[in-house]
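[09:14] KT: can someone run the structure on this one? pasting the chain below
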Amino acid sequence: MATKTISITEDAYDRLATRKEPTESFSDVIVKITGKGSLIELAGVLTKKETNELRANIAARRTAMRARLKRMAGRFDQYDI
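[09:31] RB: done, structure tokens below
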């Protein structure tokens, strides 16, 4: 397997080292924390109440964003484009 040499700050190294298990290489850690995760891994992380609050917050943010986009689009209506 080909390898690359990289330079990182001591702070970055220390943070990476805290994620490293004794049997892992630093490459293993980087792959682990940057790899694609599965949504199924998140199942059961939130309580029912937290899930409902999250959904409500997402819906509110979407509503606010749509209103903002509508206001912005209205500003462009005044121009002959």
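[09:33] KT: thanks! The longest helix spans residues 48-76.
[09:34] RB: yep, looked fine to me
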